[in-house]
Amino acid sequence: MSQRYMLDTHVVSHIMQGRDAELLARLTQLPVGQVVMSSVTLAELEYGLHRKGQPVRLKNALTQVLLRMDVLPWDEQVATCYGEFCCTLEAQGINLSDFDMMIAAHAVTVNATLVSRDKAFGQVAERLRLEVW
Fold first, then answer.
1. How far is CA 131 from CA 5, 9, 116, in A?
2. Model-level pTM?
């Protein structure tokens, strides 16, 4: 199976804004199914839409993104990985936001490369495959 990429919330937000030609080109070069998002990312995006009053342009942009990528459920396996991952990182003095930890654990569990521009994920690079797009 080819490499799978899980996009974090900020990267999906940039895609929805449609202003990053390089990012959009990279995304369109990959087959549908190779790029996914966590249900945690979708929850963050939906929250953002509701906070902004559900602007039609952004809601339509999210709908278009969802046509090109699957949303993977956050399940029991991910929850188990999350607990262990958080405990290990905490012991090393590394603390990410809860949502970032949930997304990172999800990427690790499904053996996906996390795509992010968030430098905080660099702290967990020994456990997480990470790419910056």
1. 9, 14, 6
2. 0.93
